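DNA/RNA-binding protein Kin17 WH-like domain-containing protein
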Amino acid sequence: MGKSDFLTPKAIANRIKSKGLQKLRWYCQMCQKQCRDENGFKCHCMSESHQRQLLLASENPQQFMDYFSEEFRNDFLELLRRRFGTKRVHNNIVYN
């Protein structure tokens, strides 16, 4: 149980989890949950909590869209304010 456990799938998964937030490739915005891989995302989409969130969103889709749009706008303006200050820049540069 020494060094041979270093490359087991469980050990690799634990190291990845310990790093914290990963690349946001597998992210469910509705539930605000990040998944590590495609399989985890697929399992999340089939989960009961995700289905409940979908039902809530389908009842009032405009409220959810407004919330996400407002969140994006606030974060975008905060990034613009902190990173570029009073300089003029194209939106695409800030967005990318």
